[in-house]
TrEMBL record:
Organism: Phytophthora fragariae
Protein name as it appears in the record: ABM domain-containing protein
SUPFAM superfamilies: Dimeric alpha+beta barrel
């Protein structure tokens, strides 16, 4: 299974990762999984600049 979280701003992701429950999630989930969990980050779009479509 996969968990997908999307954030509009990088600062929102940092706030999420600083939450104490963020670390607790892995502690809770690891014993339930048959393989170690993997965390990937993918930036879908660069929203720092306007996008122009022609």
């Amino acid at each position: 299974w996969t968990i997908v979280e999307r954030y509009e701003r990088q600062s929102s992701l940092k706030i999420h990762q600083a939450n104490p429950y963020y670390a607790e999630f892995s502690v809770y989930m690891e014993p339930l999984m048959d393989q170690p969990g993997e965390v990937f980050q993918y930036n879908e779009l660069d929203t720092s600049k306007p996008v122009h479509v022609e």
